[in-house]
Amino acid sequence: MYKFITTLALVCAATLGFASTAQAQATQQVKAVYHINTDVNTVPAVLNNIRNHMAADPKAKIVVVTHGAGINFLLQDAKDSQGREFSGAVSDLAGKGVEFRVCNNTLTVRNINPDRLLMETKIVPSGVAEVARLQALEGYVYLKP
Predict the structure, then answer these.
(1) Where do the DSSP E strands lie in 3-144?
(2) pLDDT, tens digit, 9 for 90 and up, residues 107-116
């Protein structure tokens, strides 16, 4: 009888442990930082990746960090080589909670007035430092599509 009770207690403990682990995973939010430092012609695929990510996990917290040539799609009236504009896609994603951050170092070096940025953007002191900070201090996973 003692062996039966011990076995039953272990099974119950394992079941409760599994249930609480599954519940904890279900309530945790995935946080991802998408790093963009390439020209505008790579951006449509990146934005598609983000849309797919959001469709698969609508609760995901996504931050897009840009620097260098990667900021170009966040400038007003930016288009890729096929004439596709980005402002509508950026606005749509921002409306779903995606954040777009732009490197101030890039703006300064390239002498770009911050007024040229889309209104959905936020300026950070350094793009690479922001990526590192999000990973090291806030638990974001790094994605470089």
Answers:
(1) 31-36, 61-66, 99-103, 121-124, 141-143
(2) 999 999 999 9
Q: How many residues does the chain have?
A: 145
User: How far apart, in whole angstroms, are the C-alpha atoms of residue 25 and residue 48?
Assistant: 26
Q: CA-to-CA distance for 65 and 125, rounded, in angstroms? A: 11
* Contact (CB, 8 A) for 143 and 63: no
- CA-to-CA distance for 65 and 62, rounded, in angstroms? 10
Give the residue from 71, 72, 73, 63 showing the smallest Cα distance to 143: 63
What domain count does the chain have?
1
pLDDT for the residue numbered 2? 47
What are the tokens at 95?
A: 């409306």
pLDDT in tens, 42-94: 999 999 999 999 999 999 999 999 999 999 999 999 999 999 999 999 999 99
What is the Cα–Cα distance from 27 to 94, expressed in whole angstroms? 23
Give domain status of residue 42, yes or no. Answer: yes
Range of the domain at 95: 29-143
Residue 14 lies in a domain: no
